[in-house]
Amino acid sequence: MKKLFLCLAAVMAFQAFALRPGDPVEELVDVKWIQGVPFAMLPPAKPAPGDPEYKAVIFLLTRAQNTDDTLTLLNYLRRTFANRARFAVVTPDSEADVRALLARRPDFTLSFGIDTKRTLTPKYIGDSPLLPLAFLTDKSGEIIWSGEAAYLGEALQKCFDGTFDRKAQRKIAPLLEELPTLLRGENETRMRKTVDSIFQLEPGHPTALRIRLFVLESAGRVEEALKLIQSQLRLVPKNTRLYFEAMNLIARNPALAAYTGPTVQAYAGAVTDNADTDNQMAWMLLTRQPGDPEALKSALMLSRRAMSLLKRDTQGALRGACLNTQALLAARLGKLEEAARLQEEAVKVFQAAALPGAVADARQRLRYYRTAVELAGSN
């Protein structure tokens, strides 16, 4: 158990940030902007009607394994919150590394700067060694949320739907900072109480939940881990992230396979108008549980619903992603020619949307399906 706690303390992103929710933002000084316009975090002296309601700066490392996922997420957030929120990326890495990354990702066009003196990054993130981290501010220049970049979209959505609790965020920050000490001291009882305190302030808090799930799953207490997620879902049944947490847990632990159907049904009943998450869930079921009949049935239902929710003029990343899933589903159902046709359509959609990374991935899948069709025809 001691080894478990030390491992978790080393890899989780909850070390003390230098800036907390409630603090005034630090301006992005000594930043060399390699791409996009210089990005100011402080509010303008003369606000204009078109100014965004929120701004976010994301600190990342260009060679980190999750960097591509972060850039893809930011592209999605830019489209989702267009004209209402603006985003910029800052890194302490070299200009050569930044230019190499941007050359590889021509679809990413947000402002991207280098912390030339490497003093701005520690001002924001303190002693947290794990990036990417995001800091969200309002029009007054106050930091209202900070955390792992993967959860920035969730925080923004709460801001816009009126469920974001600023006071809770200020209380959560010091509680998160207690957790490394509790983990290093192997004090699971106090750690559980601290996590529960965070859940009282924000049900299903992503970092607190991930910590608790890691401890439970590593100790072999997987049913207890699933019950924890279910307890949070009862409080926030429309939180899509929690359903994905549950399905990821089930996928990692075949002993929980019986919960696949009920979890998907609960999701489908609570979340009824989100083609994107329907498609993501269907894709995960097909790729993470390829041998599970219930997962196949659930993926078919969700993929069909996702396509039905798409507006006729919806193009770009979402339609292409839905076509990717439809193609994989057709292949799993033995319809190889249909899979190739759908995948070819996905390639065209991604091309029209100028998404080179998605085009390359879709073409590779198309080659696979065409090869499968040829091999099936030769036997």
TrEMBL record:
Keywords, ordered alphabetically: Signal
Where does the signal peptide begin and end?
1-18
**UniProt protein name:** Tetratricopeptide repeat protein
The major lineage groups are:
Bacteria, Pseudomonadati, Lentisphaerota, Lentisphaeria, Victivallales
